[in-house]
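How it folds:
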Amino acid sequence: MKRLLLAVCSTLGLAACSSPGVDAFRNESPKLDLRQYFDGTVDAWGIVRDRDGTISQRFTVEIRATWNGDVGTLDEQFRYSDGRTQQRVWTLRKSGDIYVGTAADVVGEAKGEAAGNAFRLQYVLDYPYRSSTIHLNVDDWMYLVDDRVLLNRSSITKLGFEVAQVMISFRKRS
């Protein structure tokens, strides 16, 4: 009986930790085309919520995005509420609904997939910590609300434990 209870609890625990794949959004609209949405200037506002629920950072981002065929460049200029600034330049390559991305602080390649109104991008971030860096796993989910608004929720994990969530609201300039 104990083994059965343990097996049921383990199965429920694994199911609770898993999330639906991007295919679950295939029939949702409006359809997200990253090349169309991230073309020109996009503004964003975000927060970082630590594992204890504390909002540890607020930031704005100006993104200047261009595409040359199926290769896009997203030049992100971050401005944090404490006055710090940061730049991240993404290079994205599209092949069907699959995207591969690189950036200076991303370990290896980011892997992404689009379906319907959703886009999921997973990567390892080389994050500054104390006098060194640590590797954090990032699971980005983006959802197109309308032709100008895109919402993003990121789960940041280390060793399988969520250490932070990032929430961002994007607005494409007219």
